[in-house]
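Intended use. Records like the one below are meant for learning the mapping from a protein sequence to its folded structure. Do not use them to infer anything beyond what is encoded.
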Amino acid sequence: MPHRNTAENALTHMLPLRTSGPAALAALVLVGCAAPHGVDRSDVAALLERQRGAWNRGDLATFVGYYHPEMTFLGSSGLTRKPADLLEHYRRSYPDAAARGVLSFDILEVRPAGADQALVLGSYRIDRAAPDSGYFTLLVVRGADGGLRVLHDHTSRARAK
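Structure written out for the chain above:
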């Protein structure tokens, strides 16, 4: 797993050997500025809105572009480990606007899972001739650029009523 720039790591690497006086105070201020601000519901809503917009425009490459390079996706077709493979699956399964329909999401819950990640529970709906809906669990992580990426996605279709 890549090294994370946490406040603890930054403090360990930035503080001088003598930890008193102005140098220690300056180091603590820098660590506070570098610390991640967490992932909240509004961050997740913005990510899902960007994905929804890309899907509804037919831009599946941008939709999948919000997945982390080391992502995993678990759905009815099994486990997918690479964004390129997920994109190929979506292009095969949703070849045109009629198949893609109009996607919408509802966030049911967002649980912090560390300073730069969150567990997201939600539902999706695809409005089309044969509507589709279901549920998803995402693990989203904040990247070095500050943007959120989907590291894991487990999506399940809702049972027919």
